[in-house]
Amino acid sequence: MNPAPAPVLVPVSRARPPLWQNSATGLVAGIGVSAISYGTAGPGLGYFFGTFLLISIVFPYLIPMSDPAVRADDRVRSTLLVCGATGMGVGVAWCILFRTPGVVVTDVLRCLVVLLAYLAALAGVVLLLCRLHIPPILAAAATVVIAFAWLTWPVWLSPALSGPHGESIVGLLVHADPLMAANSVLKVFGAWDHAYSIAYNQLTTLNQDAPYRMPGSIFPSVLVHCVIAVAAMAGSALPTARTSTAGQAHPMGRDRDRRGALWE
Known about the structure:
The chain is mostly helical. It contains 13 helices and no strands.
Protein backbone atom coordinates (compact mmCIF):
# COMPACT_ATOMS: atom_id res chain seq x y z
CA MET A 1 0.00 0.00 0.00
CA ASN A 2 1.52 3.23 -1.13
CA PRO A 3 1.73 5.98 1.51
CA ALA A 4 -0.50 9.01 0.98
CA PRO A 5 1.29 11.96 -0.62
CA ALA A 6 2.28 14.72 1.73
CA PRO A 7 -0.10 17.67 1.58
CA VAL A 8 1.12 20.81 -0.13
CA LEU A 9 0.79 23.81 2.13
CA VAL A 10 0.03 27.02 0.24
CA PRO A 11 0.57 30.22 2.23
CA VAL A 12 -2.42 32.49 2.30
CA SER A 13 -1.68 36.19 1.84
CA ARG A 14 -3.25 38.54 4.33
CA ALA A 15 -6.14 40.65 3.12
CA ARG A 16 -5.46 44.27 2.40
CA PRO A 17 -8.00 47.08 2.40
CA PRO A 18 -9.07 48.46 -0.99
CA LEU A 19 -6.97 51.60 -0.67
CA TRP A 20 -7.94 53.37 -3.88
CA GLN A 21 -11.57 52.37 -3.64
CA ASN A 22 -11.90 53.86 -0.16
CA SER A 23 -9.96 56.97 -1.23
CA ALA A 24 -12.22 57.51 -4.23
CA THR A 25 -15.26 57.20 -2.00
CA GLY A 26 -13.80 59.78 0.37
CA LEU A 27 -13.07 62.15 -2.51
CA VAL A 28 -16.63 61.92 -3.81
CA ALA A 29 -18.04 62.27 -0.30
CA GLY A 30 -16.00 65.41 0.33
CA ILE A 31 -17.18 67.07 -2.87
CA GLY A 32 -20.80 65.97 -2.33
CA VAL A 33 -20.99 67.16 1.28
CA SER A 34 -19.48 70.53 0.36
CA ALA A 35 -21.91 70.92 -2.53
CA ILE A 36 -24.87 70.23 -0.22
CA SER A 37 -23.54 72.72 2.31
CA TYR A 38 -23.07 75.38 -0.36
CA GLY A 39 -26.55 74.81 -1.73
CA THR A 40 -28.02 75.12 1.77
CA ALA A 41 -26.00 77.96 3.27
CA GLY A 42 -24.58 79.76 0.24
CA PRO A 43 -21.18 81.45 0.21
CA GLY A 44 -20.23 82.54 3.68
CA LEU A 45 -19.29 81.28 7.10
CA GLY A 46 -22.20 78.84 7.11
CA TYR A 47 -20.70 77.09 4.10
CA PHE A 48 -17.62 76.12 6.13
CA PHE A 49 -19.53 75.31 9.30
CA GLY A 50 -22.07 73.25 7.37
CA THR A 51 -19.28 71.27 5.74
CA PHE A 52 -17.78 70.41 9.13
CA LEU A 53 -21.16 69.30 10.45
CA LEU A 54 -22.18 67.23 7.43
CA ILE A 55 -18.80 65.58 7.00
CA SER A 56 -19.02 64.52 10.66
CA ILE A 57 -22.06 62.42 9.74
CA VAL A 58 -20.61 60.76 6.65
CA PHE A 59 -16.89 60.41 7.30
CA PRO A 60 -16.85 57.90 10.21
CA TYR A 61 -18.62 55.35 8.00
CA LEU A 62 -15.88 55.61 5.37
CA ILE A 63 -13.17 54.25 7.67
CA PRO A 64 -12.03 50.71 6.65
CA MET A 65 -12.59 48.89 9.93
CA SER A 66 -14.68 45.78 9.41
CA ASP A 67 -12.13 43.19 8.21
CA PRO A 68 -10.26 41.61 11.16
CA ALA A 69 -7.76 39.97 8.80
CA VAL A 70 -6.34 43.36 7.79
CA ARG A 71 -3.12 44.20 9.56
CA ALA A 72 -3.21 47.21 11.88
CA ASP A 73 -0.59 49.16 9.92
CA ASP A 74 -2.48 48.60 6.66
CA ARG A 75 -5.70 49.77 8.29
CA VAL A 76 -4.07 52.96 9.59
CA ARG A 77 -2.48 53.66 6.21
CA SER A 78 -5.79 53.17 4.44
CA THR A 79 -7.47 55.42 7.00
CA LEU A 80 -4.97 58.21 6.41
CA LEU A 81 -5.53 57.93 2.65
CA VAL A 82 -9.28 58.26 3.18
CA CYS A 83 -8.68 61.34 5.35
CA GLY A 84 -6.53 62.93 2.67
CA ALA A 85 -8.93 62.09 -0.15
CA THR A 86 -11.94 63.42 1.75
CA GLY A 87 -10.09 66.61 2.60
CA MET A 88 -9.05 66.97 -1.03
CA GLY A 89 -12.66 66.69 -2.13
CA VAL A 90 -13.73 69.35 0.34
CA GLY A 91 -10.81 71.59 -0.68
CA VAL A 92 -11.78 71.36 -4.34
CA ALA A 93 -15.32 72.42 -3.48
CA TRP A 94 -14.13 75.21 -1.18
CA CYS A 95 -12.24 76.77 -4.08
CA ILE A 96 -15.54 78.26 -5.21
CA LEU A 97 -15.12 80.85 -2.46
CA PHE A 98 -12.16 82.36 -4.27
CA ARG A 99 -14.75 84.56 -5.97
CA THR A 100 -15.73 86.05 -2.60
CA PRO A 101 -14.03 89.40 -1.89
CA GLY A 102 -11.60 89.13 1.00
CA VAL A 103 -11.09 85.33 0.77
CA VAL A 104 -7.63 84.32 -0.48
CA VAL A 105 -5.98 80.99 -1.21
CA THR A 106 -4.11 80.86 2.09
CA ASP A 107 -7.38 81.26 4.02
CA VAL A 108 -8.88 78.20 2.37
CA LEU A 109 -5.67 76.22 2.83
CA ARG A 110 -5.55 76.98 6.55
CA CYS A 111 -9.17 75.96 6.96
CA LEU A 112 -8.35 72.76 5.07
CA VAL A 113 -5.51 72.00 7.49
CA VAL A 114 -7.95 72.39 10.38
CA LEU A 115 -10.40 70.05 8.64
CA LEU A 116 -7.75 67.39 7.94
CA ALA A 117 -6.65 67.35 11.58
CA TYR A 118 -10.29 67.07 12.65
CA LEU A 119 -10.92 64.17 10.24
CA ALA A 120 -7.82 62.38 11.46
CA ALA A 121 -9.08 62.65 15.04
CA LEU A 122 -12.47 61.23 14.05
CA ALA A 123 -10.79 58.38 12.19
CA GLY A 124 -8.64 57.59 15.22
CA VAL A 125 -11.70 57.46 17.47
CA VAL A 126 -13.44 55.03 15.09
CA LEU A 127 -10.42 52.71 14.96
CA LEU A 128 -9.96 52.83 18.71
CA LEU A 129 -13.61 51.96 19.38
CA CYS A 130 -13.34 49.03 16.96
CA ARG A 131 -10.19 47.95 18.78
CA LEU A 132 -12.31 47.83 21.96
CA HIS A 133 -14.51 45.21 20.20
CA ILE A 134 -17.37 47.60 19.49
CA PRO A 135 -19.14 46.62 16.22
CA PRO A 136 -18.02 48.84 13.32
CA ILE A 137 -21.45 50.38 12.68
CA LEU A 138 -21.87 51.23 16.35
CA ALA A 139 -18.31 52.61 16.50
CA ALA A 140 -19.03 54.93 13.58
CA ALA A 141 -22.37 55.98 15.08
CA ALA A 142 -20.74 56.70 18.45
CA THR A 143 -18.08 58.78 16.69
CA VAL A 144 -20.80 60.84 14.99
CA VAL A 145 -22.37 61.53 18.38
CA ILE A 146 -18.99 62.51 19.85
CA ALA A 147 -18.28 64.77 16.88
CA PHE A 148 -21.60 66.60 17.18
CA ALA A 149 -21.17 66.97 20.93
CA TRP A 150 -17.75 68.51 20.32
CA LEU A 151 -18.83 70.88 17.55
CA THR A 152 -21.95 72.05 19.40
CA TRP A 153 -20.48 72.54 22.88
CA PRO A 154 -21.07 76.33 22.71
CA VAL A 155 -24.81 75.54 22.71
CA TRP A 156 -25.21 72.86 25.37
CA LEU A 157 -22.16 73.46 27.58
CA SER A 158 -21.83 77.24 27.69
CA PRO A 159 -24.64 77.78 30.28
CA ALA A 160 -22.60 75.76 32.78
CA LEU A 161 -19.39 77.72 32.13
CA SER A 162 -20.27 81.10 33.61
CA GLY A 163 -17.98 82.53 36.28
CA PRO A 164 -14.18 82.92 36.54
CA HIS A 165 -13.42 79.20 36.48
CA GLY A 166 -15.74 78.67 33.56
CA GLU A 167 -14.07 81.48 31.63
CA SER A 168 -10.71 79.70 31.72
CA ILE A 169 -12.34 76.47 30.50
CA VAL A 170 -14.09 78.38 27.72
CA GLY A 171 -10.73 79.80 26.64
CA LEU A 172 -9.25 76.31 26.33
CA LEU A 173 -12.25 74.94 24.44
CA VAL A 174 -12.40 77.90 22.06
CA HIS A 175 -8.75 77.52 21.06
CA ALA A 176 -9.20 73.79 20.41
CA ASP A 177 -12.53 74.12 18.57
CA PRO A 178 -12.14 73.54 14.79
CA LEU A 179 -15.08 75.81 13.97
CA MET A 180 -13.59 78.64 16.01
CA ALA A 181 -10.24 78.08 14.32
CA ALA A 182 -11.85 78.31 10.89
CA ASN A 183 -13.76 81.42 11.94
CA SER A 184 -10.53 83.04 13.10
CA VAL A 185 -9.22 82.62 9.56
CA LEU A 186 -12.39 83.77 7.81
CA LYS A 187 -12.64 87.11 9.57
CA VAL A 188 -14.15 88.63 6.44
CA PHE A 189 -17.46 86.94 7.36
CA GLY A 190 -17.43 88.21 10.95
CA ALA A 191 -17.70 86.25 14.19
CA TRP A 192 -20.13 83.33 14.14
CA ASP A 193 -22.20 84.55 17.10
CA HIS A 194 -22.68 87.95 15.45
CA ALA A 195 -23.15 86.68 11.92
CA TYR A 196 -26.05 84.53 13.09
CA SER A 197 -28.12 86.50 15.58
CA ILE A 198 -30.17 83.47 16.63
CA ALA A 199 -26.99 81.87 17.96
CA TYR A 200 -26.14 84.91 20.05
CA ASN A 201 -29.67 85.57 21.32
CA GLN A 202 -31.05 82.07 21.90
CA LEU A 203 -28.56 79.23 21.44
CA THR A 204 -25.47 80.17 23.44
CA THR A 205 -24.29 82.29 26.35
CA LEU A 206 -20.78 82.78 24.96
CA ASN A 207 -19.75 86.44 25.04
CA GLN A 208 -22.62 87.05 27.48
CA ASP A 209 -22.29 85.03 30.69
CA ALA A 210 -19.13 83.34 29.39
CA PRO A 211 -16.82 85.82 27.60
CA TYR A 212 -14.18 84.55 25.20
CA ARG A 213 -11.70 85.68 22.57
CA MET A 214 -11.41 84.26 19.09
CA PRO A 215 -8.24 82.16 18.56
CA GLY A 216 -5.32 84.01 17.07
CA SER A 217 -4.05 80.95 15.21
CA ILE A 218 -5.20 77.58 13.94
CA PHE A 219 -2.21 75.88 15.58
CA PRO A 220 -3.85 74.97 18.95
CA SER A 221 -6.82 73.30 17.26
CA VAL A 222 -4.64 71.44 14.77
CA LEU A 223 -2.29 70.30 17.54
CA VAL A 224 -5.09 69.01 19.78
CA HIS A 225 -6.73 67.01 17.01
CA CYS A 226 -3.42 65.62 15.75
CA VAL A 227 -2.53 64.45 19.27
CA ILE A 228 -5.92 62.75 19.55
CA ALA A 229 -5.46 61.13 16.13
CA VAL A 230 -1.96 59.82 16.87
CA ALA A 231 -2.89 58.52 20.33
CA ALA A 232 -6.09 56.84 19.13
CA MET A 233 -4.50 55.24 16.07
CA ALA A 234 -1.55 54.03 18.11
CA GLY A 235 -3.95 52.54 20.63
CA SER A 236 -5.90 50.83 17.87
CA ALA A 237 -2.72 49.21 16.56
CA LEU A 238 -1.74 47.63 19.88
CA PRO A 239 -2.01 43.81 19.95
CA THR A 240 -4.98 42.47 21.84
CA ALA A 241 -4.51 40.32 24.92
CA ARG A 242 -6.19 37.48 23.03
CA THR A 243 -3.69 37.80 20.20
CA SER A 244 -0.63 38.17 22.41
CA THR A 245 -1.52 35.04 24.44
CA ALA A 246 -2.76 32.93 21.53
CA GLY A 247 -1.06 29.58 21.35
CA GLN A 248 0.40 29.76 24.90
CA ALA A 249 -2.15 27.42 26.50
CA HIS A 250 -0.46 24.40 24.87
CA PRO A 251 3.25 23.97 24.00
CA MET A 252 2.35 23.21 20.40
CA GLY A 253 -0.38 25.87 20.18
CA ARG A 254 1.61 28.29 18.06
CA ASP A 255 2.54 25.57 15.55
CA ARG A 256 -1.12 24.50 15.28
CA ASP A 257 -2.20 28.10 14.70
CA ARG A 258 0.43 28.49 12.00
CA ARG A 259 -0.54 25.28 10.24
CA GLY A 260 -4.22 26.22 10.47
CA ALA A 261 -3.53 29.59 8.86
CA LEU A 262 -1.74 27.90 5.96
CA TRP A 263 -4.71 25.60 5.34
CA GLU A 264 -7.31 28.42 5.28
